[in-house]
Specification:
CATH class of the largest domain: Alpha Beta
Structural class: alpha/beta
Number of strands: 17
Number of helices: 14
Number of domains: 3
Largest sheet: 6 strands, mixed
Distance between the termini: 48 Å
Strand content: 15-25%
Strand order of the largest sheet: 5-6-7-3-8-9
Radius of gyration: 29 Å
CATH superfamily of the largest domain: P-loop containing nucleotide triphosphate hydrolases
Helix content: 25-40%
Length: 496
């Protein structure tokens, strides 16, 4: 069966078009990964397929579309009841079949949905999605808040399925579960067979070719513009020549002849000018798909102490319950290390405690005197107001801050929008840019890549390798950790 998109055009009120005359033919049997930079319209495309917003053009889908994440109307209900609501028409045995495939204990079905961990909630809603046999799954970033084990499990699960459209920025995850990639580029959309790495290899080659081609086009444009300017100056001189006769000429000059000659020259010059202007515009229209990834900057401070952080016999407790104990680690100057552990092990609490953001870490915690810490929180919720207010509240250099955002492909148009209107990926870039603007001895980042597009992830990797900051990070992107970390991870273990 085919998913067809014909002449799709859509823009949010008061904004630039997200899609203009988009045409696609997609096989609903593909395990299709949807990628593109933040703000290119990935989530918007899924929502348009769901029929939630008016648009021009046509979307032909042979099955009803089903969206993940499902908005749970009442999270106090038992998980099984929530799944029945999320999968109308599915039999209970079908829900239980998918539930078991995702490795969630059946005792969780009787618990209120709100008491499930985020990882359990993700798996639960995926089980409801695939329990429906009459719907085409649209899956929007399922790996956010999933630990490494959970991502591997979900990738294996999706690899067994036929037919879905998946938005994700996790490169290893995409490699593990998709067989086609749909990329929303700067000026078009293209589909290719293969996993993410196959797409990346082709993209890099295409980008290099486009860049070389664009250099030629820019030279052609400059030449044509200069030629057009010369034609305009010549035309202007011809026009003036109708009324100015040199003193050496006789009074018997035939002004009719001069006017006719000047008019003919003017017509030719105008025609030439218009042709050259059209040629310039045509060539500009070819400057399409090159993704320019600007360099990011970081100010790393050198601390006189070699050991910046030491934790001994640490523990994380919630409501009198021990979540994690026996925590022991050092952070030395130049370390780039991941803090790992299952969902709910207290990773975010440890990071918050170390940077003074309110975490609940017990035990012996020694932090070097005068340590400057730059922190990226896990959540980007609650952001609102204008960007200048954000800059002022955080004491940031406006020029530097905006330059970093522009280099991360946040458009100038967004600078005039309320932060509440930014996408999740753009909000995360805002928090990351704030950290990059803050000189620090130690950078503490809690899932900094959530919602952030793959090209920006590569930008951040290049930044870290170039500036070598001391970094403690919670992140589940295996490719990122493999690239940037310098030592074995710090593992938090939950009590048995």
């Amino acid at each position: 069966m085919q998913l067809s998109i014909r002449d799709l055009t859509f823009a949010y009120p008061g904004g630039e078009p997200v899609f203009e005359h988009l045409n696609l033919n997609l096989d609903t049997g593909w395990r299709l990964g949807l990628i593109g930079r933040n703000g290119r319209g990935k989530t918007t495309l899924l929502r348009l397929m769901m029929g939630g917003m008016p648009f021009e053009g046509a979307i032909g889908l042979p099955l009803e579309a089903a969206y993940f994440p499902y908005e749970v109307p009442d999270a106090s209900l038992p998980a099984l009841e929530v799944l029945r609501q999320a999968a109308p028409g599915a039999q209970e045995w079908q829900i239980l079949r998918e539930w078991r495939l995702l490795g969630v204990g059946e005792e969780a079905l009787e618990r209120p949905f709100s008491t499930l961990s985020r990882g359990e909630q993700t798996k639960a809603l995926l089980s409801a999605l695939f329990a429906r046999e009459d719907a085409y799954p649209l899956i929007d970033e399922p790996t956010n808040h999933l630990d490494a084990h959970g991502r591997e499990l979900v990738a294996r699960y999706l690899r067994r399925k036929d037919g879905f459209l998946l938005v994700s920025h996790d490169r290893a995850f995409l490699n593990g579960c998709v067989d086609h990639v749909l990329a929303l580029n700067r000026s078009d959309a293209c589909v290719m067979q293969g996993d993410y790495d196959a797409w990346q290899e082709r993209f890099d080659r295409q980008n290099a070719w486009e860049e070389a081609r664009n250099e030629d086009l820019r030279r052609d444009i400059a030449r044509l513009e200069e030629s057009a300017r010369r034609a305009a100056r010549w035309s202007d001189r011809c026009e003036k020549g109708k009324f100015h006769v040199a003193p050496s000429e006789t009074a018997a000059v035939d002004r009719g002849y001069v006017g006719a000659r000047s008019a003919a020259m003017m017509k030719r010059a105008t025609s030439t000018l218009r042709r050259r202007e059209r040629a310039v515009e045509e060539k500009r229209g070819l400057l399409g798909n090159v993704e320019r990834v600007g360099e990011l900057r970081l100010t790393v401070l050198r601390h006189p102490k070699e050991t910046l952080v030491r934790v001994e016999d640490g523990a994380v407790r919630y409501d009198g319950r021990t979540v994690c104990e026996g925590i022991r680690f050092d952070i030395r100057w130049g370390d780039r290390v991941a803090l790992t552990g299952p969902n709910g092990a207290g990773k975010s609490s440890v990071l918050k405690a170390l940077c003074g953001a309110g975490g609940a870490l017990e035990g012996t915690v020694n932090i070097a005197a005068g340590l400057a810490v730059s922190y990226v929180p896990q959540e980007a919720e609650g952001l609102c107001g204008g960007i200048r207010d954000f800059i002022r509240r955080n004491g940031l250099d406006e020029t530097l801050f905006k330059a970093i955002l522009r280099n991360m492909d946040v458009s100038r148009e967004h600078f005039d929008r309320d932060l509440s209107e930014w996408s999740q990926g753009q909000k995360k870039k805002l928090l990351l840019a704030r950290s990059l603007c803050t000189p620090a001895h130690l950078y503490i980042w809690d899932e900094p890549l959530n919602y952030i597009d793959v090209l920006s992830r590569r930008q951040v990797e290049d930044l870290i390798l170039r500036y070598a900051p001391t970094l403690l990070v919670v992140e589940h992107d295996a490719r990122f950790l493999e690239t940037v970390t310098t030592r074995e991870p710090i593992c938090l273990e939950t009590p048995s």
